[in-house]
Design goal:
It contains nine helices and eleven strands. The chain is globular. By secondary structure, it is of the alpha/beta class. It has a single domain, classed as 4-Layer Sandwich (Metallo-beta-lactamase, Chain A). The structure holds zinc ion (ZN). Zinc ion binds next to loops.
């Protein structure tokens, strides 16, 4: 591994109403949107940012989000397309713990895990309006036990192998791989900026802006803990992209996602 490469691991799709995607703005009606994780191959190791959703969890708890996920769109399946297994990933970072960003954490008991220092406590004791977002608790024994959901833990999770290093502020994970604090959507949400040797940087908004239209209109999703902070985070993302001449990539934007490189194709 010499120059940094970024692979997008296609994780399938889900459905929300347009008024959830564009809070208080809509239009309403079913919107099918993509879910994906970001694998960064760096000279210092492999970093996986987010782990998608677990199909069985969605069918059990939120079947109205109508998941479509093939075997190749599970985390082990998407890694296998690249000739990799979960054990080949050294570090897992969760942008936040909504179910569609942490469903595959169970495959990485060996990995070092990183998130904002307030995200696990929040998942363990979330606001009533955050219960569905923070519904897959398999990423943390601590959170699952605190919520009375220990029965979710069926994949050998222990306190030791679900412990996170808690971070705060903007952090350089490895040279040119930067976690950008963008709270509002969740209490400790992170976006991701990756710099390359030979192409322009990519700024992954993650859920600070579901779509290009979200960012252009500063219209966040209805899922948030602090909408004012959410607007400030969108402005921060916009300015950062301008300052770095970065290409913006959005977390849940089907129109853009179909143009993104997935599978064995990569950015770098
Ligand atoms: Zn989210």
């Amino acid at each position: 591994m010499t120059d940094t490469k970024v692979y997008l691991l296609d994780g399938g799709s889900l459905v929300l109403d347009g008024y959830h995607v564009y809070w208080n703005r809509g239009p309403g009606g079913e919107v099918r949107f993509p879910v994906y994780s970001i694998l960064v191959e760096h000279k210092d190791g492999r970093f996986l940012i987010d782990t998608g959703y677990d199909y069985d969890h969605v069918m059990k708890v939120l079947p109205f989000e109508k998941p479509i996920q093939s075997k190749d769109q599970t985390i082990p399946g998407a890694l296998a397309l690249l000739g990799l297994e979960p054990k080949d990933v050294g570090v897992v970072v969760n942008s936040h713990f909504h179910f569609d960003h942490c469903g595959g954490n169970k495959y990485f008991p060996h990995a070092k895990k990183i998130c904002h220092r307030l995200e696990v406590p929040q998942a363990a004791n979330c606001q009533p309006f955050e219960h569905l977002g923070y519904s897959d608790l398999t990423f943390s024994v601590e959170a699952a036990e605190a919520r009375g959901q220990a029965e979710q833990l069926k994949s050998g999770q222990t306190k030791a192998n679900t412990t996170f290093e808690g971070i705060d502020g903007d952090i350089e994970l490895a040279k040119g791989v930067k976690l950008i604090l963008t709270p509002g959507h969740s209490i400790g949400h992170y976006s991701l900026l990756v710099e390359f040797g030979s192409r322009k940087p990519i700024l992954f908004t993650i859920d600070a802006a579901y779509t290009q239209k979200s960012l252009e209109t500063l219209c966040q999703a209805s899922f948030h803990i602090d909408p004012v902070a959410g607007v400030a985070s969108m402005r921060k993302v916009k300015k950062l992209a301008e300052d770095h001449g970065a290409e913006l990539m959005y977390s849940h934007d089907m129109e853009n996602f179909v143009t993104y490189q997935t599978g064995t194709k990569f950015y770098g």
